[in-house]
Amino acid sequence: MTPLDIMRHAADLGSRAPHTQHELSVGCVITDAQLNILSTGYSREDGNQKSHAEKIALEKLPADTDMSALHLFSTVEPCGTRLSNNPTCASLIIKYGIGHVYYAVHEPDRFVHQNGLDHMRAHNVNVIHVCDDRIFQSVEKANPHIRWQR
Ligand SMILES: [Zn+2]
Fold this sequence. Notes:
This protein is an alpha/beta fold. The protein contains 5 helices and 5 strands; from the N terminus they run αββαβαβαβα. The protein has a single domain, classed as Cytidine Deaminase, domain 2, CATH 3.40.140. A 5-stranded mixed beta sheet has the order 2-1-3-4-5, sandwiched between helices. Helix 1 packs parallel to helix 5 and helix 3 packs parallel to helix 4. The radius of gyration is 14 Å and the shape is globular. The mean pLDDT is 93. The structure holds zinc ion.
């Protein structure tokens, strides 16, 4: 599996998220250093309207995992600002100590201005962009209420 294969899998997961006008539909996959899948998540997977894909996937990891070696793939840039009091995905990724983060599309500023990538980079998270037409179209299809930019 290549990073692109993993991101395609994340995009498939994102399309499973129950649609809502007020939130994004995002898919997330967490792998070890060899890109073996350890955990997955998608928006609202637990039935909570406010649950983000990254948080769901992070919470499925065994506690004794060496987080710094892990790679987290999210179809949309992990959020850095939230209107609710919930912790942002960028802050959770930093708290867990995840070493590498891949994203396919930038989070739009429709809801709030986003700065998740800068926040993670400032905490030495290796941030990588990976996307292709199929992934981009999958994100668009899962989120018809959003105008996306590549
Ligand atoms: Zn988030």
